[in-house]
Amino acid sequence: MLVVVSDTHSTDGHRLTNRTLDAVREADLVVHAGDFMRESVLDAFIDEADSFLAVYGNNDGSEIRDRVPAARNVTYGGVEFAVTHTRRGGNTALSMFGRERGADAVIFGHSHRPGFHGTGAIPLLNPGSHAQPRGNRKAHAELEELPDGGLRGRLVTVDGDTFETFRIVPDE
């Protein structure tokens, strides 16, 4: 399972709880879309996950920026993701970012608003924030490989309730 989190905004640890903590511990890979706030928070995620990749966000200082990139590509289950915290220009800029990086889908954060947008030029996934939802529900994303290719995904609250499901199938 691939678990996607973002926007921790913590000064004192990863703030993972309940289903989100369990998912991170169970995951084959955890991707964080930025805004840790402190280097110790990044380290707490690395300690918790078996395999962990991240990008930095606009609230991350030089100690984090020296350790993780602003953008990266990640492949899971045959799906190529372009990962960033945000791009100025909204969904259009995010789609262009994904296309420029040769990705099948984009993972991003910043808005703290969980959602999957699969109707545009390229699917866009924002896991929301598991720790500081800013008026949205606390959430993360879980994606699993499909036997016929691609991924089945869901947006999940920290209490384990699924509130949105989706599929990502790479272009052949």
Automatic annotation (TrEMBL):
Domain of life: Archaea
Keywords: Metal-binding
Root EC class: hydrolase
EC numbers for this chain: 3.1.4.-
This protein's record includes keyword Metal-binding: yes
GO molecular function, one term: hydrolase activity
Span of domain Calcineurin-like phosphoesterase: 2-139
Required cofactor(s): a divalent metal cation
Keyword Cell membrane part of the UniProt annotation: no
Family indicated by similarity: Belongs to the metallophosphoesterase superfamily. YfcE family.
Name recorded for this polypeptide: Phosphoesterase
Species classification: Archaea, Methanobacteriati, Methanobacteriota, Stenosarchaea group, Halobacteria
